[in-house]
Amino acid sequence: MTHTPAPGAQRIFRHRSPYLLTEPTYGPVIELLASAVAHAGPIAVVVGIADGGRAPAQQIAALLGVPACHITARHNSSDALYVQATGTVTVTVPDGFPEALGGRVLLVDDICGTGATFAAVTDALADRLAPDARVDTVALCRNVGSPARPDWWAWDVDDWVVFPWEPHPDADARPLTLPERILTP
């Protein structure tokens, strides 16, 4: 399935230097996000948006004691730093993905750049959502250029972010510090 969002949404990159989410900060922020989600009520399943949302989804699901699965969504033309998203998101539902999803379904991604990925994945899952299903969203980061806001996120960012599972850039990177609180709309 392919999804094209409304025109105009574009990520902001100040080009100072990329942010770096380090392992020592990553673990505690996952715990903070899982706690915020749990405080809002029970989750039935966590869906990681691959590739960037796979690891955080697995860890949040483990902390919540619920199953996790993944779905693939792609809209960047490459993994190079400072590449703007194409605006067109291609979603692939893998074999073995649940046929029906009910209760609260938590979509997890590493970053909400424009909101297009969350929208495309939600659209792709529409036929699998039971009448009682509710989709909530979590991102580690939200780009300040995004008109969309996940239900929970840890940082607003105005530059590229390098996550622990990605190769570190040659450029100096600014470590993200543990947030004082989890952000919500």
Describe this protein's structure:
- Mean pLDDT is 91; it is low at 1-6.
- The radius of gyration is 16 Å and the shape is globular.
- The chain has 185 residues and is α/β, with parallel strands linked by helices.
- It has helices at 23-39, 54-64, 116-125, and strands at residues 2-3, 19-20, 45-50, 68-76, 85-92, 104-112, 134-143, 152-157, 161-162, 174-175.
- The protein has one domain (2-6, 17-78, 87-166): Rossmann fold (3-Layer(aba) Sandwich), CATH 3.40.50.
Provide keyphrases for this structure.
alpha/beta; Rossmann fold; seven-stranded mixed sheet; 3 helices; 21% helix; disordered N terminus
Question: DSSP helix count?
Answer: 3
Please mark out the parts with pLDDT under 50 across 5 or more consecutive residues, or reply none. 1-6
The strands making up the biggest β-sheet line up spatially as 1-5-4-3-6-7-8
Q: Can you count the beta strands? A: 10
Tell me, what's the shape?
A: globular
| Element-level helix/strand string | EEHEHEEEHEEEE
Structural class: alpha/beta
Give the tally of structural domains. 1
What is the gyration radius calculated from CA atoms?
16 Å
The multimeric state of the shown protein is single chain
Residues in β-strands, percent: 25-35%
Structure, briefly:
By secondary structure, the protein is an alpha/beta fold. The protein has three helices and ten strands, in the order E-E-H-E-H-E-E-E-H-E-E-E-E.
